[in-house]
């Protein structure tokens, strides 16, 4: 099974900051990597699929990059509503999630 | 309006079983695999398994292989996940989620079902 290492597990940033969250996989998955945002008490919401394609309706301050084994979710100009948790995910023969990153107010 | 509607919260004793349902609305139920994902309190997302609603074929995470059964009833567009031999560390929110096979991403989620295992 593919292992996914997401980092950092938490980060502190100010409104307006640029933040990056990383996901590393144990095998080459090309661009088969998705990113989700999860608000407290809610189901995850798809932000980015296929490593870099923004889901419809998602603000353009969110972007994804990477291929192979290293991927990045970037939020430019952090907004108040972005202080939640984020997960990377891969679908193969099984499904794997990264450990999650909680974005906190600095 | 596409949505997944899950059954309500459950409280179970250790050793018991729980069966959670997930009813689909607004799309062709048999056209998309249904997955189950759980989240323990304060923890991350953990994949439990999936079912092909068309064929009934299932794939389970190795961790749950001997305790989980996923089924479906196509006539009422509903998927089920039954977890047996419950332990306190099975306490979690259980989500059903549809995977979109053209991008392999979870694009539709249920609201979650809280399962509490406590003596």
Structure in words:
- The complex is a heterodimer of chains A (106) and B (119).
- Chain A has 106 residues and is mostly beta strands.
- Helix content of chain A is 0%, strand content 51%.
- In chain A, strands 2, 4, 5, 6, 9, 10 and 11 form a 7-stranded mixed β-sheet that branches.
- The mean pLDDT of chain A is 97.
- Chain B is mainly β and 119 residues long.
- Chain B is 0% helix and 52% strand.
- Chain B contains no helices and 11 strands.
- The termini of chain B are far apart.
- The mean pLDDT of chain B is 97.
- Classes of the chains: A mainly beta (106), B mainly beta (119).
- The A-B interface holds A 1, 32, 34, 36, 38, 43-46, 49-50, 53, 55, 87, 89, 91, 93-100 and B 35, 37, 44-47, 50, 59, 61-62, 95, 97, 99, 103-107, 109-112.
Concise account of the structure shown:
The complex is a heterodimer of chains A (106) and B (119). Chain A has no helices and 11 strands. With 106 residues, chain A is mainly β.
């Amino acid at each position: 099974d593919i292992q996914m290492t997401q980092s950092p597990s938490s980060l502190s940033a100010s409104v307006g900051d640029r933040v990056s969250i990383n996901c590393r996989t144990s095998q080459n998955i090309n661009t088969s990597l998705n990113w989700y945002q999860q608000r407290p008490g809610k189901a995850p919401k798809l932000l980015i699929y296929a490593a870099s394609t923004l889901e419809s309706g998602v603000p353009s301050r969110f972007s994804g990059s990477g291929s192979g084994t290293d991927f990045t979710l970037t939020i430019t100009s952090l907004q108040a509503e972005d202080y939640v948790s984020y997960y990377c995910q891969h679908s193969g023969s099984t499904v794997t999630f990264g450990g999650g990153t909680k974005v906190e107010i600095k | 309006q596409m949505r997944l509607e899950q059954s309500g919260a459950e409280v179970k004793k250790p050793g018991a079983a729980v069966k959670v349902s997930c009813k689909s609305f607004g799309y062709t139920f048999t056209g998309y695999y249904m997955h189950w994902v759980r989240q323990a309190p304060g923890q991350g997302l953990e994949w439990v398994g999936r079912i092909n609603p068309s064929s009934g074929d299932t794939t389970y995470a190795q961790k749950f292989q001997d305790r989980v059964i996923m089924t479906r009833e196509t006539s009422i567009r509903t998927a089920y996940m039954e977890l047996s031999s419950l332990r306190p560390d099975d306490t979690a929110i259980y989500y059903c989620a549809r995977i979109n096979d053209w991008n392999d991403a979870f694009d539709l989620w249920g609201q979650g079902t809280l399962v509490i295992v406590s003596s």
